[in-house]
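Entry 14. Ran structure prediction on the chain below.
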Amino acid sequence: MFENLQQRLEDAIKKLRGQSKLTEENIDEALKEVRKALLDADVNFDVAKGFIEQVKEKAIGTEVKGKVSPDQLIVKIIHDELVSVMGSSKSDLLHAPHAPTIIMIAGLQGSGKTTFSGKLAASLRKKGRQPLLVACDVYRPAAVDQLKTLGEQIGAPVFTMEGANPVSIATEALVYARKFARDYIIIDTAGRLTIDEAMMQEVADIKEKVSPHEILFVCDAMTGQDAVNTAKAFHERLSLTGVVLSKLDGDTRGGAALSIRQVVGKPIKFVSTGEKMDALEPFHPDRIASRILGMGDIVSLVEKAQSQYDEKEAEKIEAKIKKGEFNFNDFMEQMSMIRKMGSLKDLLGMIPGMDKAMRNVEIDDSAFTKVEAIINSMTKKEREQPKILNGSRRLRIAKGSGTSIQEVNRLIKQFEDMQKMMKQMTNGKMKMPKMPTGGFMPGMFGRRN
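Output, structure tokens:
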């Protein structure tokens, strides 16, 4: 996430390293590079210009005190300004004073509207809400079927009307929701590859008919400035209440995240970071700013871990470790928890300093699949008693898993090392982290580029 922008900003800030104080001259030199980094990240020109002006004004008027170095001070100023540009604080989903709360989802085709609709419904269900998904995209092939599939996956009903127009579908969905006590209505509207009048008129008609409490614009974070321009056009027609950045786990330059709040004037409410239904997070400007500057996001990492963390299960695992009974079955369960938390690359990026340390290291998410194949090729007894894994058994496992004997040996060696490390933790020699496997994942790091 934002890797290129992060590195460019880091290079710019290095120009102040070793300086004894901040001067207008060295600030200008550093900010010239910051400005280039922002523009290369496809940040809106006016936003980038205003950002640099604000940082310069605050930097020149700030005295370097104590042990704080000029580069540390400029990082703090840039961080604070990034937070300000992106919205200062988290913006929560609006709630109607009387149910149902109506949420209309808008955006171009391919931006991720339907997937986001499913994710939002899943998130609301986790909070004990009763959402209703409404299929108003009657044009895109299989759009209705996609929403039905997502609804079945998360256990949320999907309202459809074959042969009806989107305005009628949205109107009847409201009647249905009130009748069956659904407290949220999520309307998935149609999009086009580009903005056209027919699409805009249709979403405007839906808005007029059902009076949604939230109108969320979903934009592909990888499209940068184009996403911002599209959001502006939708806002002028619909008066958006918020923005959702989708595909933030892809090759995101950062332009949309840093520009859209300033250009549209509406908060970013959610970020979507994958295809899984739980890959949706509230947008925290301060946390994103920290990640852009390579400072990590340990709060989000802990929240992800806690969402998968079962205290009773952890106590059982800790007891097994103390007795030296932690086996491959236990490891598979822990690995499953990590997989639910997201990609390895994203998780590592949340650890302060890790983005920089791992910049030239290939992060291999397929390591999970390979490890699972190796463990699944073991017999029940072998998984429970790893010590019996002799040469002939390892060869059979390698053939059964489609891996090499070297890969099997490496996994077993790493597993044994992990057992020793975890035993030290439980014996009080090291602090036991409250996270699945303590962040360990055999084979997850590839070669340095």
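The first helix runs from residue 3 to 13. Will compare against last week's run tomorrow.
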